[in-house]
Amino acid sequence: MAQNRITLKDVAEHAGYSLRTVKKVFNNHSEGVSEKARAKILESAEALDYKFNFIASALAKNNKIRIAIVYNFTSKYYFPEVDKGFQTCADELRDFGVSIEFHRINSSEVKAQQKVLDSLLTREDITGIILQPISAHGLNANIQGLVDAGKVVATFGADAPASKRLFYIGPEAYKSGRIASQILANYIGKSGKVFIINQASEHMQTVERKRGFKDRILGTYPHIDVYEINTPSNKSMYYDLVKSIVLNEDVKGFFCTDADVYIAGNVLKELNRQDIVVVGYDFSEETYNLMKEGYIKVILMQEPERQGYLSLKTLCEHILNVKEPKQEKIYTQISIVTSECLD
After folding, report:
1. Integer angstrom CA distances of residue 7 from 40, 58, 70, 335
2. Are the C-beta atoms of 262 and 296 separated by less than 8 Å?
3. How far apart are CA 165 and CA 63, in angstroms?
4. Can you give the pLDDT of all 343 residues of the chain as single tens digits?
5. Contact at 8 Å (CB) between 178 and 221?
6. Domains of the chain (ranges, CATH numbers)
């Protein structure tokens, strides 16, 4: 994600005018601002590629836009990176009346997310909701209710494709599953027993990653046997299950469909099994160390910080009637990090 994003303060410093004068220009308040100053400020904004001058009209109307961000906090990685993106964008938009609030649900239950969405239904101060649905289909009625109440809903990281959400921003899950299968197959010599490890079985990313993985294996690698394990959200039970597979099965590899891939890596470290290939998602200091030690072979990166940033930016553009999403599904990039490429 790009660093040092341009703010109104940067524009003021570049133009050589006070922040107050710059705000007047973007508020369309001409009193006390010369044409020369206005031209110079707009010239500086263009030179710096200032991204949010399109929201100036909202300021003149004293718009207050509060966005609720809702997700089930199911992994200690990924979500903190997403939050950075949301917060960076919110900081840039604060001058334009935009604020955010987080609803982090410490549960993997669909009902817990439904309860939060229901609580937002009658909140007059909430303009929009950015949601990572824990279920691809189980929240459609809740999203419909929010839309009927005049709120705009978008999804990030995982989708509810049959719902009335405005857009989805995140990785192309099916494609990433196919990529993972190709990588894992090449590492294990295109034969042997592999296990797919899932946690949130209704989560769109889990469903589509698994589907992509299995489709490519079944269509391309006839000598690989695929088994699927659904684990509870309890991390110690996840650990014990993976350990049991390693101790009792002739397993060649694991495909972990979420950011908890580090758990499988820690199992292999305890058992000193660098021969088993682990492929999963989301980079962190813990996964980095496990990769350096040879217990995780490949991580698929999915730009979590960009997911947060772009979701909030795109939703605010729509709310302010400035720009509609170019498409219903906006995919972030998938990058491959292997243990061999680490310093």
Report:
1. 16, 17, 27, 29
2. yes
3. 23
4. 344 567 888 899 999 999 888 887 776 666 778 888 888 988 888 888 775 544 454 544 556 899 999 999 878 888 999 999 999 999 988 877 899 999 999 888 899 999 999 999 999 999 999 999 999 899 999 999 999 999 999 999 999 999 999 999 999 999 999 999 999 999 999 999 999 998 867 889 999 999 999 999 999 999 999 999 888 777 889 999 999 999 999 999 999 998 889 999 999 999 999 999 999 998 888 999 999 999 999 999 989 999 999 999 999 888 876 677 878 999 999 999 997 777 6
5. no
6. 8-50 (no CATH), 60-171+304-332 (3.40.50.2300), 173-301 (3.40.50.2300)
- The Cα–Cα gap between 25 and 66 comes to 24
CB 316 within 8 A of CB 129: no
Q: Which helix (H) or strand (E) holds 279?
A: strand 277-281
Q: What is the pTM of this model?
A: 0.78
Q: Give the single-character DSSP code of 48.
A: T
Token readout for 88 is 């960076």
Q: Please give the C-alpha separations between residue 183 and each of 226, 296, 306, 324, in angstroms, as whole numbers.
A: 15, 13, 25, 37
